[in-house]
Amino acid sequence: MPPHAATFIKASVYNKFGNYSTDYEISADYELFVRLLLLHKVCYSRLDKVLVKMRTGGVSSSGIKSNFLLNIEIVKACKDNGIYTNIFLVLLKTPMKLLELFRRPSTNKI
Description:
mainly alpha
Protein backbone atom coordinates (compact mmCIF):
# COMPACT_ATOMS: atom_id res chain seq x y z
CA MET A 1 0.00 0.00 0.00
CA PRO A 2 1.31 3.48 -0.79
CA PRO A 3 2.22 5.67 2.16
CA HIS A 4 -1.16 7.35 2.39
CA ALA A 5 -0.12 10.21 4.68
CA ALA A 6 1.45 11.84 1.62
CA THR A 7 -1.03 10.70 -1.03
CA PHE A 8 -2.88 13.25 -3.10
CA ILE A 9 -6.00 12.12 -4.96
CA LYS A 10 -7.91 14.27 -7.40
CA ALA A 11 -11.54 15.03 -6.57
CA SER A 12 -12.52 13.60 -9.97
CA VAL A 13 -11.18 10.18 -8.86
CA TYR A 14 -13.33 10.27 -5.71
CA ASN A 15 -16.31 11.42 -7.78
CA LYS A 16 -15.87 8.54 -10.23
CA PHE A 17 -14.92 5.67 -7.91
CA GLY A 18 -16.15 6.72 -4.47
CA ASN A 19 -14.64 7.86 -1.20
CA TYR A 20 -13.46 5.96 1.87
CA SER A 21 -15.91 3.22 2.85
CA THR A 22 -17.41 3.48 6.31
CA ASP A 23 -17.81 -0.32 6.38
CA TYR A 24 -14.30 -0.63 7.81
CA GLU A 25 -13.33 0.33 11.34
CA ILE A 26 -9.56 0.36 10.80
CA SER A 27 -8.66 -0.33 7.17
CA ALA A 28 -10.81 2.05 5.11
CA ASP A 29 -7.60 3.44 3.60
CA TYR A 30 -6.50 -0.04 2.51
CA GLU A 31 -9.89 -0.74 0.92
CA LEU A 32 -9.77 2.58 -0.95
CA PHE A 33 -6.36 1.77 -2.44
CA VAL A 34 -7.44 -1.76 -3.36
CA ARG A 35 -10.48 -0.31 -5.12
CA LEU A 36 -8.62 2.48 -6.90
CA LEU A 37 -5.34 0.78 -7.80
CA LEU A 38 -6.20 -2.90 -8.24
CA LEU A 39 -9.86 -2.88 -9.24
CA HIS A 40 -10.10 0.30 -11.32
CA LYS A 41 -6.41 0.55 -12.32
CA VAL A 42 -6.22 4.28 -11.50
CA CYS A 43 -2.87 5.64 -12.72
CA TYR A 44 -0.47 7.03 -10.15
CA SER A 45 3.07 8.33 -9.87
CA ARG A 46 5.54 7.92 -7.09
CA LEU A 47 7.83 10.65 -5.86
CA ASP A 48 11.06 9.14 -4.54
CA LYS A 49 11.32 11.61 -1.69
CA VAL A 50 10.38 11.52 1.99
CA LEU A 51 7.53 13.99 2.55
CA VAL A 52 6.24 12.79 5.91
CA LYS A 53 7.88 11.04 8.85
CA MET A 54 5.46 9.39 11.24
CA ARG A 55 5.75 7.60 14.54
CA THR A 56 4.11 4.24 15.00
CA GLY A 57 0.85 4.24 16.85
CA GLY A 58 -2.80 4.81 16.24
CA VAL A 59 -5.77 2.51 16.12
CA SER A 60 -4.29 0.03 13.63
CA SER A 61 -1.22 -0.67 15.77
CA SER A 62 -2.58 -0.41 19.30
CA GLY A 63 -2.38 -4.09 20.21
CA ILE A 64 -3.13 -7.67 19.27
CA LYS A 65 -6.90 -7.13 19.07
CA SER A 66 -6.58 -4.21 16.65
CA ASN A 67 -3.97 -6.09 14.60
CA PHE A 68 -6.35 -9.06 14.34
CA LEU A 69 -9.24 -6.80 13.27
CA LEU A 70 -6.99 -5.04 10.75
CA ASN A 71 -6.05 -8.36 9.12
CA ILE A 72 -9.69 -9.51 9.02
CA GLU A 73 -10.67 -6.20 7.40
CA ILE A 74 -7.87 -6.50 4.83
CA VAL A 75 -9.25 -9.89 3.77
CA LYS A 76 -12.76 -8.37 3.61
CA ALA A 77 -11.52 -5.38 1.56
CA CYS A 78 -9.93 -7.68 -0.99
CA LYS A 79 -12.94 -9.98 -1.20
CA ASP A 80 -15.35 -7.02 -1.47
CA ASN A 81 -13.38 -5.85 -4.50
CA GLY A 82 -12.98 -9.25 -6.18
CA ILE A 83 -9.32 -9.74 -5.22
CA TYR A 84 -8.47 -13.24 -4.01
CA THR A 85 -6.76 -13.52 -0.65
CA ASN A 86 -7.05 -15.37 2.63
CA ILE A 87 -5.90 -14.75 6.17
CA PHE A 88 -2.70 -16.78 5.69
CA LEU A 89 -1.59 -14.66 2.72
CA VAL A 90 -2.36 -11.50 4.68
CA LEU A 91 -0.33 -12.72 7.65
CA LEU A 92 2.70 -13.07 5.34
CA LYS A 93 2.91 -9.26 5.20
CA THR A 94 4.58 -9.13 8.63
CA PRO A 95 7.71 -11.13 7.71
CA MET A 96 7.81 -9.31 4.34
CA LYS A 97 7.88 -5.95 6.15
CA LEU A 98 10.72 -7.20 8.34
CA LEU A 99 12.69 -8.14 5.22
CA GLU A 100 12.14 -4.62 3.87
CA LEU A 101 13.83 -3.16 6.94
CA PHE A 102 16.99 -5.12 6.20
CA ARG A 103 17.04 -4.22 2.49
CA ARG A 104 16.17 -0.53 2.86
CA PRO A 105 19.08 1.92 3.08
CA SER A 106 19.18 3.99 6.25
CA THR A 107 17.47 7.40 6.06
CA ASN A 108 18.96 8.59 9.35
CA LYS A 109 22.18 9.90 7.82
CA ILE A 110 23.61 13.09 9.28
